[in-house]
Each structure stands twice: as structure tokens, then as C-alpha cells.
Amino acid sequence: MDGRLMHRRGFFVDGAWAAPAGGDRLGVVSPATEEVVGEVPAATAADIDRAVGAARSAFDDGPWPRMAPAERAEVLARAAKVLRGREADIAGITVEETGCAVSQAPRAQTGMVAALFDYYARLITDFEFEREVVAGDRTGLVTAEPVGVVAAIVPWNAPVTLAAWKTAPALAAGCTVVIKPPPEAPLSNFVLAEALAEAGVPPGAVNVVPGGREIGEHLVTHPGTDKVAFTGSTAAGKRIMSLCGERVKRVSLELGGKSAAIVLDDADAPGLMPGLVAGAMHLSGQVCGAHTRVLLPRSRYAEAVEAAAAAASAVPVGDPHDPATVVGPLVAERQRERVLGYVSLAEDAGARVAAGGGRPPHLPRGWYVEPTVLADVDNSMRTAREEIFGPVLCLIPYDGEDEAVRIANDSPYGLSGGVWTGDPARGLRVARRVRTGSIAVNGSYPPFPLVPFGGFKESGLGRELGPEGLRSFLEPRSIGLPASLRSASP
């Protein structure tokens, strides 16, 4: 990778590179080699203050919120073009930062980024930002106003993609943004900021200051921010929601999941297992919407377990730079220990390791875990109820369709899911019964980014993507109009 992209000396604030307030540096460690591959300043509260101040000034006094939607749309469309030219940089950095397999980087790290800016550029061209309402002799003008300064806090598994999920609709609404990338993956969002500045987003409208939890809390509680948009763990989301609740601050949360794939009794359970295993191993299992519980009819359970174990054992694990690799390392040593700890918990509770379960013997260096299949899992086990965030698939037997739906819904989460069947109409009926934010029938996923994404229960609050994603950055306002200002049309 270009050394300039991997070694940054400052933060992106107010349209320029800003020297850090402190002198500490944060080393970026490769999950594959355990060696330092990049560096960025360690942010302080003063750095956050400066970024929020720039965003506040850009919102209160700058041109961006005052542009017509069509003008903002032109800038967003240019941003999409610039971002397409920077996709290789974004993907390359995230391979180094997170250990994402290069074979998956185009889909996971860049596939939706430019498309999102294009989508919201088109959407706001025709979006109804104002409407007139008449009741008898009274008339009201209902306007959709930008919420203000947005604190966009993103995780390490897809840092630019998930920053774009927040930044594109926020900018489309007329907001300004402070992006806080995580310390594990602090570098890639600087490319997003550079691209947006090149496209004509004015100074202060987008700022990037990476940092850890304490810096994140300072941003969340900062009086200069109006809304927090967060993607991350449910535990962190609860903390953020509490802090925002104390301040009546707007908040949207995209949190964890333990999604279920229901394989009905008329489906080819063994034949489906390679695809279900592959889905669970995407980004080494570090995906909130992964279908990590597979619910199987008891009559087909044994052969499905055998097929899943064979599929998992055949998944290529190794150097994320190798195009043949499917499962790379986990993001950090602590994450590897967490995942292996859950495997041990499963065995202690009576589950069986059908495949994997340890460190790949041919990879003595790096934070790797073998693609793992757990059989004989009961839905009451911690491994079935808690988000592991690693390459671990739980196989749960059931008796009858009603029990399958009950098990799928017996979870504190409700983010994603799937139904597999030989009868698509039956699959839709079952899908309607599952309490989850999105669900696929026979692998037919919703057409993101045109539709909303988010979760029920502890999987989050609010929605990203689609028109709903734009509305989450808008405040409705009602204005009473005197007769002289009423529209001429009835």
C-alpha cells in the first residue's frame, strides 16, 4: 500500500489536514502478521472539539444546509464518481487494517459505497422536503429540516461502507458530519473524506477523527452534536442510547445479531449447507447480519451436519492478500480469544464440534480461527443466544414448522434471517412470522440500498438505507400560513 495512505500525520477537519492536539501515536497492527503496518495520531478530546466546532460552523453558517436539494445532489453524484476511482485504495487499506480477505473486499468494503451516494443523489432530486396541508380555513406548511451535526461512529469490520451508510443520507439531508472510525481500522475513512472534498463537499461538512471508546463518548455527549448514528455491539449501543437519553439527543443504532436460517422440511438441507457455511464465514464471520443459527428439521439433521462439516473443512483459510483465501484472520487477538472461548463454552454445555474449533495448524502467526461448525446445539446455550462475531455456525434441530419459528424468534436479537424451502409461497408465509428487520426467502435478499436495514429488539433502533435512512436525518416542522401565502392550487 501507498505509505501516505497507511501513515497519517493528522486528522481531516474543516476541509484540511489538522495537526493533532496531542503527541501520542496509534499503531495499526496487521491481524495477519501481528506487525505494525500503519500509524495515525491518537485523538484527544481537543481534537473532537475542533472537529465538532468545524461541523457546527459549517451547519450553522455554511452553504451546505442552505443549498437546494438538487445542488446537493450534484455534489453527491460527483462524489460517487470520485469514490469509484478510489475503490482500490479503500479495499487495500482495509485488507491491511482488518484482515479482510482481498477476495471479499470489493463486495464488503467498497461495493455499496459509491452506489449509496448515487442513490441518495437521485432520491433527494424528487424527495418531498415540503408539503402544504389544508384543513378548512387553515393551511400548514410541513417541512423536512436537517437534524444538524451528526456524530457517525463506525465499527472495524466494514469501516467505509458503514460510514457511507450514515454520511451519504446525512449529507443528502443537509447535515454535517463528524466520522469517528475505530482504533483497529482508523485509516480507510480518510480516503472517503478526501473523495468528498474533491467532489465539492464544503469545508467542515465532513470531518474524520479516529479514536477509542473514551473519545467516542466525548463525541456522543458533546453539546455541539445533534444526532448520533452508531453501528457496533449491542452493549456499546445501550451505553450510547443511555447517554443520548440523558440529553434527549437523536440516535439511531445498528447493533448485533444472532440471525436464524430456517431450512424447512421440503428443502434440500444437505445441498444447502455449503452456501450457508459460506455465508456465515464472510469476513471471517465478523458480520452482524450473518445467519449464524441454522435451524434444521430433525429428520435431515444428521446428514446436514455432515454436509456442513465437510463444507467448513474445505473453506480456504490463510493470508488475506491471497485471492484464493476466503477466511482471513480475526481483527484482534482479543477477538480470537473471545471466539475460541465460545467454542469451549459450547462443548461444556453439551454441543459437539463437527468441524474446526481451534487455530489452523498451518498458521502459527496471525489471529486465525478455523471455520467451525457446532452440532447438537440447543437454543438455550450461550453460543446460540450471544453474538460470537467469528467463523462459527450453530446447527439446531427442530420438530415442525411452528417450533422452527419459535426458536428463530427466541432470541434477544432480530436483525436478519432466512427461510429455505421448495415452496416459495410457504417460505414467504414463514418469513412473515419471524420477528426480524430483514429476511431472505431462498437467498433472495432485499435490494439494498433501496430498502431499509435495521433490527428489531436488541438489534437496534431506527433504520439505515432506503428513504427511511434519509428521514432519520430530518426533523419535521410545521408552519402555519396566512391566507396571503397559501398556494393557488386547491
From TrEMBL:
Keywords for the protein's UniProt record, in alphabetical order: Oxidoreductase
InterPro entries: Ald_DH/histidinol_DH (IPR016161), Ald_DH_C (IPR016163), Ald_DH_CS_GLU (IPR029510), Ald_DH_N (IPR016162), Aldehyde_DH_dom (IPR015590)
PROSITE patterns: ALDEHYDE_DEHYDR_GLU
Active site positions: E254
Domain Aldehyde dehydrogenase: 17-478
Keyword hit for Transmembrane: no
Family in the record: Belongs to the aldehyde dehydrogenase family.
UniProt xrefs under PANTHER family: ALDEHYDE DEHYDROGENASE, ALDEHYDE DEHYDROGENASE-RELATED
Protein name: Aldehyde dehydrogenase
Organism per entry: Actinomadura chokoriensis
